[in-house]
Amino acid sequence: MRIGFVVGQFPQLSETFVIGQMTGLLRRGFSVEVVCNGIHYDFPDRRQEPLRTLLPRTRDWWGAAARLRPAVAGLPAQLRDKVSTALDISSAASLNRCDVIVAHFGHNGARAARLKKWKRLTPPIITIFHGYDVGVPLQERDLGRYGDLFRHGTLNLTVNGYFRDVLVKAGAPAEKVAVHHMGIDLKKIPYDWKSWRGAPLQLISVCRLAEKKGVEYALRALAELRADAPDLAWHYRIIGDGPLRQGLEALASELGIAEHISFLGSLPHGDVKEWLQRSHAFVLPSVTAANGDVEGIPVALMEAMAAGLTVVSSCHSGIPELIEDGKTGFLAAERDVNTLADRLRFIAEHPDECESIALAARRKVEAEFDMERLDDDFAAMLGRFAELRRVA
């Protein structure tokens, strides 16, 4: 069975979940083709599997005409859409050889749906919505941009229930929208809870330093914790880079907690894994960004919970579908620094109570976010749609 993936630039470090899903299908005997909006031939590990298999099967939407992309981007909106659609048609033959089309992110699904609308594309289209593609058009009151996708797409999958509700309210037929979580490879993440009784609490975040990750509020909460409980010993390490790093470093100094904060920048996966193993609690107080960008359900939280860290996050988007406050982790309202500080203080002062919470968190991830089980379900879903197409 041949599956055609429609994505943005490929491959991307920030979208390893896409590569992971492709890998799951390859392991189950599927053939995978990729149509994208620019190919990164210099991507790390490109000579190793699965990229060694995937890159030769990847083509740019516009083929040799991809060099025209900057010029097309500068055209007036209506003309740009017409030219883009005309150039997209060059990939229709490749996609029509597939049994099912899987588009990651709503805008890529909409792109495929336009070809379906013009009767240039025949396979069923399954689109997976992740976050930015829901939050930004919701804030802009422009979810109508997905009208063609709602009409011509076969199924819209959302990574959380909140997104499903948003799409149905925007006009997507309820029977064509379902929740399908992204997951993690639990075989690679052993559970290893460690007590911090009698030792400094080791806090960690692993994320891109962008607004929606909420690192600013973690810093402000820790400053409040420092003021309210100056005898508590803790250290906070932030792994990742991004546009807000310089400002966050300045904020740590301004708050008087810089000596307790380490900005480690982007690190290789092996180093990140080692730092996680040395840590006790994972902090990610996500917020809705000014442009509407939101999380789906962050994979980083799943990985931390699987590894035995106590997680602290926010009542944001689909995160409460993963974390139940006081049961599998701790939550505060978005930007609620006082509650966030209280949660951190509780963790620092109650390591024994946190052990049962960490174990419950591991079981939650095993039950609902196991990549192997989710990939089995996804493969079965694709098989059913492909069979319906053959019968039709």
TrEMBL record:
Q: Which residues form the Glycosyltransferase subfamily 4-like N-terminal domain?
A: 15-187
- Which branch of life, at top level? Bacteria
Q: Which Pfam families match?
A: Glyco_transf_4 (PF13439), Glycos_transf_1 (PF00534)
Q: Which UniProt keywords apply?
A: Glycosyltransferase, Transferase
Q: Name one GO molecular function term.
A: glycosyltransferase activity
InterPro entries reported for this sequence = Glyco_trans_1, Glyco_trans_4-like_N
> Residue ranges of the Glycosyl transferase family domain?
200-363
To which protein family does this belong?
Answer: Belongs to the glycosyltransferase group 1 family. Glycosyltransferase 4 subfamily.
Name of the molecule in the record: Colanic acid biosynthesis glycosyltransferase WcaL
- Source organism per UniProt: Sinorhizobium saheli
Q: What is the lineage of its organism?
A: Bacteria, Pseudomonadati, Pseudomonadota, Alphaproteobacteria, Hyphomicrobiales
